[in-house]
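Task card 7
Instruction: Convert sequence to structure tokens.
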Amino acid sequence: MLQMAEKLLVGGRWIDGGPPLEVRNKYTRDVFATLPTARPEDVDAAIAAATDAAPVMAAMPAHRRSEILARTAALLAEYRDDVARTIAAEAGKALKWARLETDRAVATFTCAAEEAKRIHGETVPLDAVPSGEGFFGFYIRRPVGVVAAISPFNFPLNLVAHKVAPAIAAGNSIVLKPASTTPLTAVALCRFLTEAGLPPGGINLVVGPGSTVGDQLVADPRVAKITFTGSPDVGRQIMTRAGIKKVTLELGNTSPVVIAPDADLDLVAKRCAFGAFYYSGQVCISVQRIFTDRKVHEPFTERFVAATQNLVVGDPLDERTDVGPMIDIREAERIEGWVDEARQGGAQVLIGGQRNGPVYLPTVLTRVRPEMKVVAQEAFAPVASVMEYDDFEEALRAADATEYGLQAAVFTRDIGRVFQAIRRLNFGGVIINEIPTFRVDHMPYGGNRQSGVGREGVRYAIEEMTNIQMVVIRT
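Output:
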């Protein structure tokens, strides 16, 4: 793992801050690092440093911002294995998937380096109306200023990258608050950014509870933009406390998969097993609700259970492991309670349904009802439910019967069904013949309804992190 100064970063200086935060190996539960938490005065100093750095960042030419981002990508690639081992230890993510996350972060920073050179406006034909005759118009995009980036535990590198890289590409300064359970990867990234040439105050790192550090960031009027990934409850609190500033929220899902009778069941079963149990289901677009045509329900379910049985559960630092622990033993206990409640209500556990400390075994349920927590609420755990349907439109209605709307998936070879699904499903992304867990880092990504507001994906995040300035010239 990376050896680094375990401190906060404010105005280009690594500082000690307040009481120490213990960082635990999520599988062994052993403390392997400590990091100081941010006091109110530390958060204030970080915002002040970002405010001072904002005009420096805005004045930096595009090619220079691009060079810093490209250099950061190169450093991530150079230290790939060390970064991945840090992720595996502090997040409990299987090492193979931690390496994949590191590779994705390299791609995110590389995309941002390219997009930094493509930020531009366009002309506006003012003479399209009589009152615009004799005027020439165009707009440009300007950085918003200070961006507060509040990131979750489940992708401690790449979801930070999705906030930090576009902010830098657009010419903003940043105050970053990573999840308290997984702060070390963010420390490493800040070190890489500093080494890559980011000016002092361009990024500032503060660590601590959302109820104190997060609230202070959200409410401060010097912060021009908040980008947050986390729970709907916290997202709603941010919207009520933020005041007049730009906000992007990515808040989760109860990801549905609709399987038509003509689908390739071998492919679907393997992909659903990956999508449901990758990182113990602690992914906003993890497969949770699977709707199968009655004619293929039994053969699909058999294949899905078999694919689940093939997963290796254990220490995330073991190269063979597919599924490691949940982020906290309390989360494992929570989903244990949800599954027990469903079982008592008539649900059948086909595989799993057991907890070993912080590890909850990959679990497949059937005979569930829509009102059960494992179906109606975001499980954020290695639990998937398989339900039968008789009519494809009925399945689409059931898939759409949720307060969330991040991503949904449909498996079919029928183009008519494809467009039927696109028209019917109110989700930010509709994925055809792949699981809803699919994401590449330059596509627009975000949810409808209670799944959030705004979009990530480098180019689209840059748009959220800039303001349009209209210029009108009398000719």
